[in-house]
Amino acid sequence: MAEIIDGKKLAKKIRQELKEEVIKENLHPRLAVILVGDDEASKIYIRNKSRACEDVGIEFIEHILPTNTTMEELLELINKLNNDNEVSGILLQSPLPGHMNIKTAFETINPEKDVDGFNPINIGRLEMNEPAFVSCTPYGVIRMLEEYNIDIEGKTAVVIGRSNIVGKPLIQLLLNKNATVIVTHSRTKNLENYTRQADILVSAIGKAKYIKADMVKEGAVVIDVGINRIKGDVPGKKVLVGDTDYSEVSKKASYITPVPGGVGPMTIAMLMHNVVKAEKLKNK
Ligand code: NDP
Predict the structure, then answer these.
(1) CATH architecture assignment, domain 136-265
(2) Which listed residue, of 23, 148, 188, 257, carries a Cα 20 to 30 Å from 110's Cα?
């Protein structure tokens, strides 16, 4: 039976360490969050992030803009926050309304305040294995492996999914840690031929219980990034599950992350980490 990688517990520990660092070093980290429109899921994400900030001692400044905000107005706000020395980090909540260009918006965020790691400068720095702000979910995955003393170097790591926010930065992080990385996606034929080779298997596809036990090598480390809402036992109530068929895969893996309570809490903890880092860089 696999050892559970407890993301919730680990995230709590990281947040506590950050909190102590903020107090000890007398830091005043501030995160400016921009939300355009009234996407319900985004509001929930922002509420969770605001609670985490409060917990760590990061001031959370919300900028809620109406759906009909123009691109010029958004860029003007980003530039204002870029130039505001009181602001450590800027987070632009996606999605943006259809008339806006998210790529331009991310490009406008000062790379030194880009705590989500979505600015192309940070993506390039990661590619070149230089100090960078790294997207919080893949960064959280690496931190989990490190905290559980799971070797990455020389291991075969198979990543399922190649999105800009999860799969691609994770591929690069694993490569920077000297894993042999295999990238798979929706056009990959015979996916199981690759997943069965994985010492470390990371799934970030968003398909409930898609990864079955026969696709996993005995003793593999399985990291499940997926978050899927499916019908539960209670009528009308949905439950959260990952991309892996947890009950079966956990019998075969050596380590596994649960959903919920795995990668999710780590994502927020790494955001907190990035904001504190941005504040320290600003003061240098
Ligand atoms: P995207 O939809 O942007 O990307 C999904 C990726 O999975 C794509 O690269 C796609 O391939 C690939 N894919 C889809 N179906 C298959 C398949 N059958 N076989 C192989 N590959 C497949 O999603 P995200 O990267 O944003 O998110 C992925 C999952 O992770 C979601 O469930 C999301 O909710 C979750 N997530 C969780 C976070 C957390 O904090 N725990 C944070 C961010 C995301 P192709 O490129 O060919 O289309």
Answers:
(1) 3-Layer(aba) Sandwich (3.40)
(2) 23
